[in-house]
Amino acid sequence: MPHCTKCGAAVADNAGFCGNCGATQPGSGGGTPGPGSGNPGAQSGLAENVAGTACYTLGWITGLIFFFIDKRPFVRFHARQSIVVFGGLGLLSTFLVLMSGTAMLMGGAIGYPLKFLLFQLINVLGFILWIVLMIKAYKGEKYRVPVAADLADSLFGKM
């Protein structure tokens, strides 16, 4: 079922306007466009799967950009997940760096190697997640990162 290019609400196949917001809808050639079908959104001008993939390219920053400019449910799902996953990993990394610096300033390097190892582990995990999420979005899949997707639903509202 197609979605409104303005508000993201579901509209009938041949609807001339959205019943939710009243926005005019582009003509439908019949059939249901899906992720990767080449149906550009009015907001970003990208196919749905490409826009979903782009949500992850610069981590939470591109997630935030696409959250505000693209109203399609598939793209908004990936934008919300990108914000939570990479924003959370960034905050965790920053916290570990600050704690390591504080420990060094206080005259002891007792926990420094452990914190450095955790920092590197977070970086590797973030890189692997980045690749996997971009591939899943490009394939048109809504892969839910177990804790992050639920947190995104509670923060941004479930779609």
* Count of discrete alpha- or pi-helical segments spanning 4 or more residues: 5
Please give the share of residues in helix.
Answer: 55-70%
The total beta strand count reads: 0
Biggest pleated sheet: none
Structural class: mainly alpha
Envelope shape: elongated
Rg for CA atoms = 20 Å
- Measured between the Cα atoms of the first and last residue, the distance is 15 Å
Strand content: under 5%
Average pLDDT score: 79
Which residues sit in consecutive blocks of at least 5 with pLDDT less than 50?
28-42
Number of domains: 2
- List the secondary-structure elements in sequence, H or E: HHHHH
Describe, in short, the structure shown.
The protein has helices at 48-54, 60-69, 73-105, 112-138, 146-156.
Q: Can you walk through the features of this model?
A:
The protein has 5 helices and no strands. It folds into 2 domains: 1-32; 48-156, no CATH class. Helix content is 55%, strand content 0%. It has helices spanning 48-54, 60-69, 73-105, 112-138, 146-156. The chain is mostly helical. Mean pLDDT is 79; it is low at 28-42.
